[in-house]
UniProtKB/TrEMBL annotation:
Protein name per its UniProtKB record: Kinesin-like protein
Record field: transmembrane: none
A cellular component term, taken from the record's GO annotations: microtubule
Species name: Stentor coeruleus
Record has Nucleus as a keyword: no
Disordered: annotated span: 63-82, 460-479, 485-535
Amino acid sequence: MDKKVPATQADKIKEKFKNQKDFQCLRKEQVIEAMSPEDILQELKNKGLPTYGTNRERIDRLKKANGLNPSDSNSAKKGSVVNSIEAISKKREERRKKMEEEKLYKEERKAENEAMGKGGDVVFEAMINQFRSQVPLQDQHIPSSNLKICVCVRKRPIFTKEEAQGEIDSISCSNPRVLVHETKVKVDGITKYLENHTFVFDNTFSEKEDNATVYEYSLKPLCPFILGGGTVTCFAYGQTGSGKTFTMKGLQSMVVNELFSASKATFFVSFFEIYGGKCFDLLNDRSKLQILEDGNGNIQIQGLVEHTAANQTELIQMIEYGNSVRTTHATTSNEDSSRSHAVCQISLKQKNIIVGKLRLVDLAGSERAQDCISNNRQRRIEGAEINKSLLALKECIRALRKGPDAHVPYRGSKMTLVLRDSFEGGSDDKKVIMIACISPGHSSSDHSLNSLRYADRLKEQSSGGNQVNQFIPKPDVAPVKKVVQQPLPSAKKNPPAKKDIKRDLERQEKQERQDKQEKQDRQERQDKLGKSFKDMEYIHDKNSEEEDNFGREILDFHEKVETILAEEEELLENHVNAIKEDAQILTKEGELIALAQGDGDYDVDSYVQQMEVLIKQKLQVYQKLYEKLLTFKAHLNEEEEFSNHLTQNFQNLKK
């Protein structure tokens, strides 16, 4: 350690004088600080110094004149302001520098995208990439063998054509999570931001995973279950163009090959579609089928032809042919949108006994459900039917999860009716796979979110799996009108005029007639729909609780559409019967005319009498048909008015 150097005599003298000077300055400062404002003012005048300013400024001026340092409060204040200005300037420069760097990055990124044929918004692209860097790593996929209901999501890759049109990949997948980065712009029209939605499913497949990976964790683990006598139903759901058909084709070929190689049973295949409430056989010249329920409660599809497949190649060819004759139609967003639900049913039989069953269901494009508010009646009816069937399917799958005592509303739609044995039984011999396919483009975010929300609701756990879920339909009663109690008239006041009493009675009678008519119309719809009415009510109530699709209104619209479809069937049947009866009457008329124009004599009175009978029969046939037509026309007008009301509500909801 260094020794302390002793101070010299000169240093000691300097230190002594410095201390004396500091003491003298301190004494002077104390004297000045102790002076009154009047003394300070007089002292400044004596020294010929300015007298303006505050008392503090005068004291500082007097200190400076006496060789003392003035108070540092002003200088500190001045220094603080300068520092603030310098800090603001520094931040401004940093902000400008950052803006220049961002601008340069945007230009460079834009040039790179243009070179690669991309045209997306580089700001949103950068924000999405930054968010993706924080997404947790992907977990291992789980096989579907241990799940009664397996809900998967598959994202397709973004196409080069889409990137050239300015599309951005706004979907991130990291099993079991899927994130939708919804691009938004604030009300100022400038500030851009992301609204991120996160969902968790049993398995999530990214665009980098092929059909073999999807099959490995979806259908393949269930092949032993099928061969053991179980029933597996696989649904493909999503927007048209999201990869449903690509996924289903890959799964079909792989599962068919595996089942054929592992089983010696005879394979039977049938393929039909459900479109607009009607059923058509896709492997039998699209012949119309009848969906009937026998005395034992079993659903029979009358006219459906089952074809035997000798090998897997023949079976796959039949499936491909069925897909090629499906009903499609161009929409505003897709040129070839599926308008129907296609059901491919593969049954494994030994000695005419089913030893395993697989159903592959390609659902209609989910965007078609939004056609409920279309200007075209045919599109509206199609959209309502698709929407209703998807809602019914959701409740049936949920019921399968809840257990054997849950109510299964399979009569809520034609599709769930024909798939009844996929949901009922409550045992371990039924399993369901739902594969929701989503498009990555940011312009499809709404459709992707709808698909994910639908799939998310399928996997919701019931609050009590062992509880009995009893369904009690609501009594069909007329709406209760609110009655306002009026105060009793005073004896001093004039009694109501007879005209007012008559007007009130007429208004009351009119209201009663309207209520009665509403009740009759509802009862008429209930009679037409039969047993399906209760299941529709059940589905309506369940979805009204979740506030889906504008609440109760759009669900009432489904009822009206179902009634129209039932009446359309009835009207067509009556029309055909009328033509047949008319043909029989026409034959009799021909015989009567031939008799009258013959060479022999004929009884003119008999001719007139028979002709009158034939004309009355004709009038009766067509009068009955005309009344049916008027009723159908009135219901079409009601549907038009209700649709306009729904459209207005939808527009108000978007504002």
